Amino acid sequence: MNYRGERHPDIFWNLVGAFLFFTFPTLKKGRETSERSVSIVIPARNEEHNLPNLLSDLKKQTVSVCEIICVNDNSEDRTSQVIKSFGLTEFKSKPLPVDWKGKTWACQQGAKKATGELLLFIDADVRLAPDAVETLLSQYKGKNHPISVQPYHKMKKQFEYFSLFFNVVQTCVTGLTVFMKKKHFGFYGPVMMIDRELFDENKGYEVVKQSVIEDYNLGKYYNKLGIHFNLLLGGDKIQFRMYSVGIKQVIEGWSKNFSSGSLASKWWIGLLVFAWISAYTSVPFELGQNIIDGDVTYIIVLATI
């Protein structure tokens, strides 16, 4: 007799997944657009392959920005030439202070150089639809309401699918997708728009200068100050390819972000996410075993997960 069905809590894990990923608020253009000037800050370290795509996208935007600041963070490739080829002035990062991380230091320097009323930080691997900046401006709610976007995860190569779970988890640990969770815990890293005065008043990235997941912790800091911020998913407006170089980059990214990110998230969300991933990564193995056993009913159940 096959007792396998008695020990598989599939319905339970489906409910856990539904609780963790209940809603997916997506970036959509509003009726009104802020007319405040925008400075775009791009931290770039060895981004000769990604940077041309982003800079090309920025040239096609439906609204103009007052400046694009590319901070070359000691790149060893052709990042410098790429910046200059687009007619932009390269801003070379100053030597890294001992108590700062590379990205936070690059962003901090770019923000100090900026002259716009709004700062828009964008990672070099992000891709933008022509109306992406306009859409961000239409979603921006005022001085005390920064906005952060997690781009849609676009995949082209087979190994990139290994980072799919990580990207899904990133949308969850901030509280954005969790059922009935109205308060968000932290920013997303790739895209953030914030009022320059608000940014300066709160010391910019200095408060998280030693953090590996600087944007998440910056959002936590703003939470403590009682500053409300909005989180959204990129949808068809903002996309990126996560860890597109090779499987080694995928493994390094998973190791870095899970080791630090799991500690930064609320413990109960981290615990549920870890358990949920563990349950679902076992599905292919269990499906294979049930095919061998000829358990048709359970094969159908697993195939629908």
Please describe the structure with a list of short key phrases separated by commas or semicolons.
10 strands; 305 residues; three-stranded mixed sheet; seven-stranded mixed sheet; alpha/beta; 41% helix; Spore Coat Polysaccharide Biosynthesis Protein SpsA, Chain A; disordered N terminus
Detailed description of the structure:
The chain starts with 9 loop residues before the first helix and ends with a helix. Strands 3-2-1-4-8-6-9 form a seven-stranded mixed sheet, with helices on both faces. It has a three-stranded mixed sheet with strand order 5-10-7. Helix 3 (79-85) links the parallel strand 2 (67-72) and strand 3. With 305 residues, it is α/β, with parallel strands linked by helices. Helix 1 (10-20) crosses helix 10, helix 6 runs antiparallel to helix 10 and helix 11 runs antiparallel to helix 12. The longest helix has 18 residues, at 247-264. The chain has helices at residues 10-20, 51-59, 79-85, 102-113, 132-139, 164-173, 196-201, 214-224, 247-264, 267-281, 283-293, 296-303, and strands at residues 38-44, 67-72, 90-92, 118-122, 126-128, 147-150, 152-153, 191-195, 230-233, 238-240. It has twelve helices and ten strands. Helices cover 41% and strands 14% of the residues. It has one domain: Alpha-Beta Complex (Spore Coat Polysaccharide Biosynthesis Protein SpsA, Chain A).
The average pLDDT value, as a whole number, equals 80
Cα radius of gyration in angstroms = 21 Å
- Major sheet attributes: 7 strands, mixed
| Shape estimate | globular
CATH superfamily: Spore Coat Polysaccharide Biosynthesis Protein SpsA, Chain A
Taking strands numbered 1, 2, ... along the chain, how are they ordered across the largest sheet? 3-2-1-4-8-6-9
In CATH, the architecture is Alpha-Beta Complex
Distance between the termini: 25 Å
Strand segment tally: 10
Can you write the helix and strand succession as a string?
A: HEHEHEHEEHEEHEHHEEHHHH
